[in-house]
Amino acid sequence: QVQLVESGGGSVQAGGSLRLSCVAARLPFFGKDWMYWVRQAPGKGLEWVSSISDDGTRTLYVDSVKGRFTISRDNAKNTVYLQMDNLKSEDTGLYYCAKDSIGRVRGQGTKVTVSS
Fold first, then answer.
1. Contact, 82 vs 17, CB < 8 A?
2. What are residue 40's DSSP bridge partners?
3. Tens digit of pLDDT for each residue in 10-45?
């Protein structure tokens, strides 16, 4: 069974930065899969945030985070990252690492709180 473990969340003021990490266990073909970050704002549904190709050369972002978030990966460490800069209050929520863009297979999440 795939295990995804996120970390790096916290509380920051608007304009601040956080770097999220996700370690994938029991995923022998990690380097051959796209990986995703999705998030859930308080009281709302899951929202796709970003995707990265198996080799890390292709990345995609939801419009609201373009230019502020950067997704990357280290296949040798089975790890995906999400660098979040210039955070806004609307970025507050639970952030999940996922194997698909709708978060059907995802970790337990890491909480991000941005205060204005």
1. no
2. 46, 94
3. 999 999 999 999 999 887 788 889 999 999 999 999
